[in-house]
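Zinc transport system ATP-binding protein: structure, please.
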Amino acid sequence: MTALLRADGVSVRHGGRLILDAVDLEVRQGEIVTIVGPNGAGKTTLVRILVGLDRPDAGQVRRTDGLSIGYVPQRFHTESLLPLTVRRLMTLGQRAGDAAVQAALGETGAAHLTEAAVQTLSGGEMQRVLLARALLRQPDILILDEPAQGVDFRGQLDLYDLIAGLRRRHGMGVLMISHDLHVVMAATDRVICLHHHVCCVGHPEAVAQDPAYQRLFGREAAGHVALYSHDHHHVHGPDGTVQPGLVSCGHDHSGHAPGQDDPCSLPSHDAHFPPPPLSPPSGAGSRCAGGHSHD
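Here you go.
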C-alpha cells in the first residue's frame, strides 16, 4: 500500500533538551496508526512537524504529491464571549458550501448541532464537529491529536468506531495520538510507542507485551488493554502493517458456487470479519527501536 506520510530520522531540541530523537514512522493508505506514550514524550511536537506547522532540527518528512491532510489538534480554543455557531466554525479559514457542511456533519453524527453555539457542546460533540470540519478538506489522511480528550468512556468507544468507519468508507489513512492505552490500543492496526524515540512498533497486542512498552508503563499495563476491538477488514503483517488482499474468515462457503457473489470474497476493506484474537498471531511480534523482534 502507498505510504502517504513518512518521517525519516526526525529530531528536535528545545532549550537544549532532546524532544525527538531520530524518529522514523510511516502511515499507509487505509491503515490506522496510533502513537502512544506518556505525557511529555514528544507526541504533539511530532504531530506538528508531520502536518508542516513546525520544522525538525534534523531528518525530514515526506508526503505524497498533493496530499490532503485533515488535522484535528489537541486543543481548539474559542472565545467564550464570542457567539459562534457550529455552522460558522465549519467554514472558519476554509471555503465550503452549505451542502458540503451538512454532509460532513451528517457523516460524523453531528448534523443536529449545525445551529448550536460551540460553547454549549459537550466534549464528544465537539470532537465530532472537529472531525466533520477536517472531512471538508476531503483528506487522504486524518491526523488526530488526542481525539478522545474530554470524552467519557462510552463516547470514546463510539468515537473510535466512527473513525474506523471513516477509514473504511474513504480508504484514508489515520494517525492518532494518545496516552490513553485502554481503548486506543485495541482500536488500531499498528501501534508506535514513543518516548522521545520510538521504543517499539507493531500489532497492538504484541506491543503490550514488549519489554520496552512495559518499562514505560509498567507490566500491569499489558493486562489492562481494553477488550474493545474494532472490526478487522484486513490482515496484519508481522510488524502490524495492513496487508492487501483477502483473509480467511472461517465461514462456511460451501453454498457459494464459483462466480457467485460472496461477501467474504470481497476486497479486504469491504468484507466483515470477526474481532482479532486477544493474543497476537504467531510471528506477529513487535519491533523495538533496534529492529529486534519480540515474539
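Notes: The chain has two domains: 3-68+139-226, 79-138.
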